[in-house]
Amino acid sequence: MTVKILIVTGDAAESLEVLYPYQRLREEGYEVHIAAPARKQLRFVVHDFEPGFDTYTEKPGYTWPADLAFSEVEPSQYAAVVIPGGRAPEYLRNDAELRKILKSFFDADKPVAQICHGPLLTAAVGGLDGRHVTAYPALELDMQAAGATFQDTEAVVDGTLISSRAWPDHPGWMREFLKVLRAKSPAT
To answer: Any coiled-coil ranges, and where (predicted)?
Structure first.
């Protein structure tokens, strides 16, 4: 039986932070499902850095279908969860179904990969208290308020929690996530 990985996201997620792990994990031999508030065509965004801007800019990105709604997710069927960033986590953290899903991954000590603004979701379920994490650097105070020790580095591994700052750090993030994932739930 193929090992399943869950990606939880929604509209305005960063395109690269959804599609890179989706493709990389499939390449590794995992079955990957994307869950969102509803089964629909999701609209992702592209965040980039431009001279003269104090923060990133946002442009329309790819569209991609959600495989299932959060209400349809059975967490016990999945070996790990990936939490992309972008603006999606800002509103997804208010979704009670998603909070139950994420809490179950922490309760079972399953691998959780989070990037950019994704830690806003794990903070919403108390998953960062006492942990070491990284996130988009503007979230340093949010991470500290959630009880985490923030490290401004490419990837941070704290047990089964693997975090990264943003899409430029994908190689380090996926390298560390796959080490943990292969040890806990090899693809074959």
So the answer is: none
